[in-house]
Amino acid sequence: MILKKITVGMLILIFLGGCAQNAALLGPAYTLATSGNVLNAGLSYGGDKLVTRTTGKSTAENLKNALTIKKKDTNFENLEKKNFEKKKKKLNLYNKKF
Fold first, then answer.
1. Tens of pLDDT, residues 25-50
2. Three-class SS state of 57
């Protein structure tokens, strides 16, 4: 029975792997289902679509590009990105203690 579930799950992942752009609806749908707030779900979806249409990249791609250190970054930008990484590591250490 467990082997059958694993096999079906793997087949679903393989065949539906290309449906990533439709998965953008899952976040707002989850928000709507859990909170029942249509306005919040609509703003979430609309904001994501606005960022994607304006920049040509998804929100995750924009965040990744903003946090990677480039050679042409100023010293201040490099310092801020390094401080961000340090704070992120400290927060992970604090969360592990509890």
1. 666 666 667 777 777 777 878 888 88
2. coil
Question: By the 8 A CB rule, do 52 and 58 touch?
Answer: yes
Residue with the two structure tokens 């010293």: 75
Burial class (CB in 10 A: 0-12, 13-18, 19+), 41: buried
Q: Say how far apart CA 37 and CA 97 lie, in whole Å.
A: 35
Residues recorded for the chain? 98
Q: What residues have CB less than 8 Å from 38, skipping those under 6 apart? A: 32
Q: At what angle do helices 26-35 and 38-55 cross, to 10 degrees?
A: 160
Could you tell me the pLDDT band of residue 17, with boundaries at 50, 70 and 90? low
| CB of 82 closer than 8 Å to CB of 73 | no
Nearest one of 94, 24, 32 to 61, comparing CA atoms: 24
Q: Whole-prediction pTM value?
A: 0.40
